[in-house]
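<amino_acid_chain>
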Amino acid sequence: MIVFGLFSSSEIAAYQDCSNPTSVFVQLTQASSEVPESQVEDSFAKMRKRVLELADLDAAPKIFEDADAPLVDGVRSIYFEGLPWQGKQTRIFALLGLPKTKAGQSGNAPVPGVVLVHGGGGTAFLQWVKKWNERGFAAISIAVEGQTDQRDQGRQKWVRHEWAGPQRKGIYGDSDLPLNDQWMYHGVADTILANSLLRSLPEVDSKKIGLVGISWGGVIASTVIGIDQRFSFAVPTYGCGDLAESANQYGRALGQNQVYRKVWDPMVRMDRVSIPVLWLTWPRDLHFPLDSVKRCYDKASGPHMVSMIPGMKHSHGAGWNPPDSYAFAESIVLSGKPWCKQRGILVDGMSSQVSFETTKIISGASLICTSDSGFTGTRKWEELPVEFTQNEAGVVVNAALPHGTTAWFVNVLSDGLVASSDYQITN
């Protein structure tokens, strides 16, 4: 016997069924009995099944034009129909833009597309849509907390609209609610519906649509790619899975959260990810540790590329300003594979050799390493120039690891782009 939060046997079944959310919530918060472990695991399995069923949201949602919002540089303000929440129908605010120029396309050929998911404190961003439009991509930036892109000047928050669904409650702080009342359930559904919407547009190539998320949007992206397998590429920026053991606020919030561990952790479905994924982050990120990011791409079955940019910082602008996400997307839609990919790593004592396949000219290489331990975001990282050679077979980087190195990776540079080796832990 184990205790599943405060749930009894009948209440676990009701939680999974979610047929009466208000009644179920009252039961969950008042119950205190023990239940068999087998029944608990069966309930988790049913919840995971319901999460996977969100992939069935493959029909284009109904679109509602925002009549009060004019076109801005060709970008439309729209709402599209979301899932019901607490007995009412919801809509998701979004900004939708089509490019004037086409990424590798000519004539009337459809263009590639991308779904954009913001992080904490964000919304649907016009600037982000325009950046992708300028690269030849159709883009839809969605607001996943029931907000618009207009500020409530009195409270300095985004204005919530009348069809809003749930807002994020801390770090999976609504895990005690029925599954279909939880914010992540709706965030995932909103993202899948945005994909279905974009795919329905005749101007968009449905086989070349990617997903990009920043911070919490990166968490959503990491979750969605294990559910909706129609995407052709993804770029989780900062955000990742495997956070329950993280030595920061995420670990403190999620260490005992079995709903996260068993249902929502992207690692639960990461082995289903077969598309190319760029994991874009930086060594000193205080939210998402490098070892958690690594465990995600190590488990995914598809090709991955890593870009860990020293000094990148953590914000929406810091996430969308580097050219790396755009160059990765372009390489996938044009050639089907990343422009740079690690081929192998050899370590002999304190000497390392990293080889890459690349389609670009490499102009520099560096070793980024630390002798500290603990959470990766609070360690001191040193960047050292190292030697490399490039020929038709690829690029080889040779680096001597400083004495006491506990973790490291190699970066290669090409015209402002950064490609990293997999993150390495020495002890």
